[in-house]
Specification:
Pantoate--beta-alanine Ligase, Chain: A,domain 2; about 20% strand; alpha/beta; 2 domains; binds pantoate; Rossmann fold; six-stranded parallel sheet; single chain
């Protein structure tokens, strides 16, 4: 592994290659900041990479579309895989290492161990609609932390419940990783950047910003002292009337994700998940 920053990132596809590169960083006394991803990188991911650059001497990005966090009816097979463009973007960001294991490397034959999460993972939000999801995320992120031994790991706030689950897991299991959440990167009209936005038809894309607008207006009304239950219910109605099938629109405690009835129970986070056509979008903001 060269320390020449103009070089393309090193790409590791098996554990010996990963360890060799990481050991070289460690031997030079260099800290490592990890950005876990499933590829299909957009500007939101690149913001995470830049934050990692600020926080670590070396930046590692994992690209692994994790089968265990998809249910059989979900989009694992069709999930966008854009290796060439991902590599070009990470090279432009001068990322040091890309960890790109195959499924058999991550889940060897006979794989039989999982990380089970509680607390924010059972908050009746994403877990209600994707019961398999946090088991898969916690297990793969736990493995990524053990494999890469990063000092810092940077996650987007867009997957807010995931951020809370991973933060809790790293603390509970003494993984020695400082988990950092970064504010959601948005399109000009407020839509949260997501690899799944490519699924939206032009008509659906035009409607999609209503999620962010509704959260903003709801937050404004809550700050003005209106009743939490009433304002959140009105927000849900607005989202449904715009053409979404609403999974949830909720005001929760920003750390525990437990329900709140007043801003005094806060800090408060608004979280939404809704489907338009075949695409499911999630988003959240602080109040
Ligand atoms: O947020 C994601 O892209 C994934 O859930 C993660 C954290 C990379 C785990 O597969």
């Amino acid at each position: 592994m060269s320390s020449d920053p103009s070089r393309d990132p090193a790409v590791a596809r098996d554990l010996p290659a990963l360890r060799e590169t990481l050991n070289a960083f460690r031997a030079a006394g260099e800290s490592v900041a990890l950005v876990p991803t499933m590829g299909a990188l957009h500007d939101g991911h690149l913001a995470l990479v830049r934050e990692a650059r600020r926080r670590g001497k070396r930046v590692a990005v994992s690209i692994f579309v994790n089968p265990t966090q998809f249910a059989p009816h979900e989009d694992f097979d069709s999930y966008p895989r854009t290796w060439d463009s991902d590599l070009a973007k990470l090279a432009a960001e001068k990322v040091d290492l890309i960890w790109n294991p195959g499924v058999k490397t991550m889940y060897p034959d006979g794989f039989a161990s999982r990380i089970v999460t509680e607390g924010p993972a059972v908050a009746d939000l994403e877990d209600r609609f994707r019961p398999h999801f946090f088991g898969g995320v916690a297990t793969v992120v736990g493995k990524l932390f053990i494999q890469c031994r990063p000092d810092v790991a940077v996650f987007g706030e867009k997957d807010y419940q995931q951020l809370r689950v991973v933060t809790r897991m790293a603390r509970d299991l003494d993984l020695g990783v400082d988990v950092v959440g970064l504010a959601t990167v948005r399109e000009n009209d407020g839509l949260a950047m997501s690899s799944r936005n490519v699924y939206l038809t032009p008509a659906q894309r035009a409607v999609a910003p209503v999620l962010h607008r509704t959260m903003q207006d709801t937050a404004t009304r809550l700050r003005a002292g209106e009743d939490v239950a009433a304002v959140v219910a009105a927000g849900g109605t607005r989202i449904t009337e715009a053409g979404f099938a609403l999974d949830y629109f909720e005001a929760r405690h920003a750390e525990t994700l437990q329900p709140v009835t007043s801003l005094q129970d806060g800090p408060v986070r608004l979280l939404v998940a809704a489907r338009i056509g075949a695409t499911r979008l999630i988003d959240n903001i602080g109040v």
